[in-house]
Design a protein that fits this description.
The protein is mostly beta strands. It has one helix spanning 188-191, and strands spanning 11-13, 24-29, 37-40, 59-62, 69-79, 82-92, 97-101, 129-131, 139-141, 147-148, 156-162, 165-173, 183-186, 197-200, 225-229, 235-239, 244-247, 259-262, 271-275. The radius of gyration is 24 Å and the shape is rod-shaped.
Length: 278
């Protein structure tokens, strides 16, 4: 089974998930006569006269600056029953142009997989055996106990011994926190014989690792990756138009724009990328 991602973000190709596409809610110019601040007050709003379609967590672009700055709506300000301004996490000057996009907080995207988890499947770790036994006790060892040289926890493996050697290592539970180069050791007390089984993890064994955090989406193409956020965390990167961004989406948000690069490390945010099938 191939690795789902090149580094910290698992990349899952699919033609059935809800790929994020821009859902433009409002566009116009700001009126911030009091000076630069993070509250966006519109001069005029299209298509309506208020921001009543906006929700906390929606994405906002300041299109006056170059490259565009991209932020998230953090609060709604009412006059009577109408939303007349919004709080954001980016700065607005009087006359700055904005676009507000729906953030796709409700979608068909499955739950995010954990960063640095092992790939589940039959035989997924078999090719990573670096030390095998030659006199193990034949049999199937379900939920075989193992130790690790790293900090990963929670994974569950099944081991098959045939002809006195380990012939298959299956992963049944992903766990988290595993990295390339970590060793998993199954002691002789589990599989018998005189030599412990040692598995040395490679990139193909892990859904994502912390390498190359400044260029996570290299080798995945430009502008074709949608991002689902498992947790509410700061995310930085470059969108498909070349705009740098730094936003704090809510947990479960799908960004309404495609990205060409994410600079955020896996320690900061749990993300899953989705390839645009078109």
């Amino acid at each position: 089974m191939a690795n789902l991602g090149t580094a910290s973000i698992p990349i899952i190709p699919s033609t059935t998930i809800n790929i994020p596409k821009p859902g433009l809610l409002y566009t116009g110019a700001s009126t911030n006569a009091g000076g630069a601040n993070t509250t966006l007050t519109p001069e005029a709003v299209s298509p309506a006269t208020t921001f009543n379609m906006v929700s906390v967590g929606d994405i906002v672009y300041n299109t006056t600056v170059s490259p565009n700055t991209i932020g998230v709506i953090t609060g709604l300000n009412y006059t009577g029953s109408n939303i007349t301004s919004v709080d954001t996490n980016i700065t607005w000057n009087d006359g700055d142009d904005y676009n507000i996009y729906h953030a796709y907080k409700v979608s068909n995207i499955p739950p995010a997989v954990d960063i640095s988890s092992l790939l589940v499947g039959d035989g997924t770790l078999t090719s990573s055996i670096t030390t095998n036994t030659t006199d193990g006790v034949n049999g199937s060892y379900t939920s075989a106990t193992f130790s690790t040289s790293g900090s990963g926890t929670g994974a569950v493996i099944d081991v098959t011994v045939s002809g006195n050697a380990v012939t298959a290592v299956d992963v049944t539970t992903t766990g988290s926190g595993y990295e390339v180069g970590d060793t998993l050791t199954v002691a002789t007390g589990v599989i018998g014989g005189s030599t412990a089984l040692v598995i040395t993890l490679v990139d193909e064994d892990i859904t994502g690792d912390t390498a190359n955090v400044t260029d996570i989406l290299k080798n995945q193409g430009m502008g074709e990756i949608g991002i689902y956020t498992k947790d509410a965390s700061d995310i930085t990167g470059v969108d498909s138009m070349g705009n740098t961004f730094s936003i704090s989406p809510l947990a479960g948000d799908t960004l309404p724009f495609f990205v060409s690069r994410i600079n955020t490390s896996s320690a900061t945010a749990a993300l899953v990328g989705f390839i645009n099938p078109s």
